[in-house]
Description:
Protein name: Prepilin-type N-terminal cleavage/methylation domain-containing protein
Shape: rod-shaped
Low-confidence stretches: 180-196, 198-214
Main location: membrane
Membrane topology: Single-pass membrane protein
Keywords: Cell inner membrane, Cell membrane, Membrane, Methylation, Transmembrane, Transmembrane helix
Subcellular location: Cell inner membrane
Amino acid sequence: MPALRPPPPAHAPGAPRRAAGFTLVEVLVALFILSIVALLSWRGVDGLVRARDAASAHGDAALRLGTVVGQWEADLTQLQRSATTPTLRHDGAALRLVRRHPQGLQVVVWTLQDGRLWRWASPPQTDTAGLQRAWQTGLQWTLLQGQALPVLEGVSAWQVYYYRSGDNAWSNAQSSAGRPAGRVPVPARPASGASSPDNPGEPGDDGEDEPAEADLIPSGVRLQLSLPAGVLTRDLMLPLAP
C-alpha cells in the first residue's frame, strides 16, 4: 500500500504570503466604473422623463386647440339671421355673430387680447330688445372682459378671411369686395302677432327701427392663428349662405 504524502505547500517556503481580497486600486477602478454606469442610467431616465413631459404637454396643447377650433366651428355652423342685428361682423379686433341656442338666440364674441384668444357668449335671448342689448354689449370689451373666457394662450396674431360668392377667392373679412347689395328678407309675421328675435314685426311696431342693411353671409370663413408652433389655418364652409 503506497504511503500517504502531505499536499505540497501553497507557496514556496520563505516566500511572502499575499493578503486575500481586492487592492485599493481595484476598488477605486470598480467605483469609477459604477459611477459611470449610474450617470449613464440617470441620463437615460432623465431623457425618458423629459420626453414623457414633452409628449404630455404637446397632447394637452393639441387637445385644447382642438376644443377651441371645435367651439369656433360650432358657433359658425349655428348662425341665425336676425332682422334687427347683424348676423356676422368682423372689425379686425373681434368677430361677433348671432347663433342659435336651444333657449333662444345668443350673441357670441371672439377676440384676441394680450396674446390670448377670448370667447364671450350672452345669455340666450327670446325677444328683440334683449338681442339688441346683447349685441351692443358685445361691442364693448370693457364690459366683456369680466365675463369672457380665455380659451387659448400664446396667440400672437389672428386673421379672419371670407370666401364670398362671385369672388372665387379668400379675402380679408373687413374687405367689401364682391359683396352684393341687398337686404335681409324679413320672415313672415307669426300668426299670434308676437314678435321674436327672428321676427320683430313690421317696421315701427313696438318702437323698433326699420331693419338695417343686410350683411349677406359669406360662403366660407377662414381662421388663421399665429401660435408658437406655427400658423394654424382652418377653413369652414357655412351652411347659412346667400
